[in-house]
Design brief:
Blueprint (H helix, E strand, L loop, with lengths): L13 H5 L8 H4 L15 H16 L4 E6 L2 E5 L7 H15 L6 E3 L3 H13 L6 E3 L3 H8 L12 H8 L6 H5 L3 H19 L16 E12 L2 H22 L1 E12 L9 E11 L2 H15 L9 E12 L8 H18 L40
Parallel strand pairs: 3-4
Antiparallel strand pairs: 1-2, 5-8, 6-7, 6-8
Helix pairs in contact: 10-11
């Protein structure tokens, strides 16, 4: 799988790993290697991923009392109140997801989030196993803690591992044996939670309600260099439309907007980047967000764009819960936005959109090898022929 604009490798099958393809390898280089000619390269297909993630979430909700999405391809499950063999139940869940959603998964069991995530990694790396690893018991954990590097633990970054390596802490067993005071001095109070989690003391419980987001960003690279202000304003309007969708999904309103753009740092063009931030009246209405970006146009038109080869643009908004006393008619705005979101949810994003938002601009993200969107696009529904 390739990143935006088919730039570099971001996901690999076991077969691709065996061929020596590394995470982050530039596609324009690795695709030319003779021994990789038979590799299938696929562009990112976020509409398909999001829909498959939703399907998996709904399946999991039928089998466990608590499901907490952590990312588009990873979810924590709360087995609270379940009786019987949890390993067998996990295998049943895994088989159901594979049969119904057609997604291969691995399951890690543990008394804390950190142990469960570590168990999942163990199950994933055991290519000939059953896809389930149970580290619920201390005996099972101690057997692997001695051989696993501390860098394999969730949340332990390279800088933290280097600090620990300087004092001879390399394995997970070394890590959890550290004195608490020393661990706090090196990794702060936040880092002190990790060894406790690894010992089975839950410090990161499942969040029953996700925290309110304080901001939303929409960032994309151009499929080709953008050199005119007209194209740039179209791109910003497209971003504002997506930001409005995200705001309404979260029940939030934007209070400030930041527009950022820069040229390609990896060619010989003159380097340029700039950003502008301005306050707006709290809103989640797509129309008002697009109109608000006109402020950025006035402030930036004198200093940028015409003739420059811009490679990337970004729009972010600061958010807060929807205000109680808006100056515009909230009922009329909500009715229009509900209709907009409802149609796009049913028929696909972009089916209904503001007139100044192009559906498939030629400067859009490059995706030359995108797989069919069988479940999200009526024109790409899987067709089966009976002979």
């Amino acid at each position: 799988m390739l990143s935006n604009n088919d730039g570099c490798v971001i996901a690999r099958s076991w077969e691709a790993k065996d061929l020596g393809i590394k995470m982050g390898d530039p596609w324009h280089i690795v695709r030319k290697k003779p021994h990789l000619k038979e590799v299938v390269w696929l562009s990112s297909n976020y509409a398909l991923y999001g829909d498959m993630s939703r399907r998996m979430y709904e399946l999991l909700c039928e089998h466990v009392p608590i499901v907490e999405p952590y990312s588009i391809d990873e979810m924590f499950l709360g087995f609270h109140g379940l009786q019987g063999d949890l390993v067998a139940h996990s295998k049943h869940i895994r088989e159901t997801v594979r049969r119904v959603a057609k997604i291969p998964t691995c399951v890690g069991l543990g008394p804390t989030n950190t142990i469960a995530k570590l168990a999942n990694a163990v199950a994933k790396n055991d290519r000939h196993g059953e896809g389930v690893c149970d580290l619920s018991m201390p005996e099972a954990r101690s057997a692997i803690y001695r051989d696993m590097a501390v860098g394999s633990v969730w949340g332990m970054g390279g800088a933290s591992c280097q600090k620990l390596a300087h004092i001879g802490v390399n394995s997970i067993a070394d890590f959890i044996a550290m004195p608490a005071d020393l661990c706090r001095d090196i990794l702060t109070v936040v880092g002190l939670r990790t060894p406790k989690e690894l010992q089975g003391v839950s410090c990161l419980p499942l969040s029953m309600a996700p925290p309110v987001r304080k901001g939303i960003s929409v960032t994309r690279s151009f499929g080709r260099p953008v050199t005119t202000w007209e194209e740039m304003t179209q791109a910003i309007a497209r971003h504002a439309t997506r930001a409005g969708e995200k705001l309404r999904q979260q029940g939030l309103a934007a209070t400030a907007m930041t527009v950022f753009m820069h040229t390609n740092r990896f060619n010989n063009d003159p380097s340029y980047s700039n950003a502008v931030t301005f306050k707006i009246e709290p809103t989640s209405d797509t129309r008002q967000l697009i109109n608000a970006r006109g402020k950025a146009s006035l402030e930036r038109r004198l200093s940028i764009c015409q003739g420059r080869h811009h490679a990337r643009r970004s729009l972010s908004v600061s958010a807060l819960p929807i205000p109680i006393f808006p100056s515009r008619d909230p009922d009329k705005s909500a009715a229009i936005m509900n209709a907009l979101d409802g149609i796009n949810l049913r028929y696909g994003r972009g089916t209904l959109r503001p007139a100044n938002v192009q559906q498939n601009p030629d400067w859009g993200t490059r995706r030359q090898n995108m797989s069919p969107r069988h479940t999200t696009d009526v024109h790409e529904i899987l067709q089966v022929t009976s002979l």
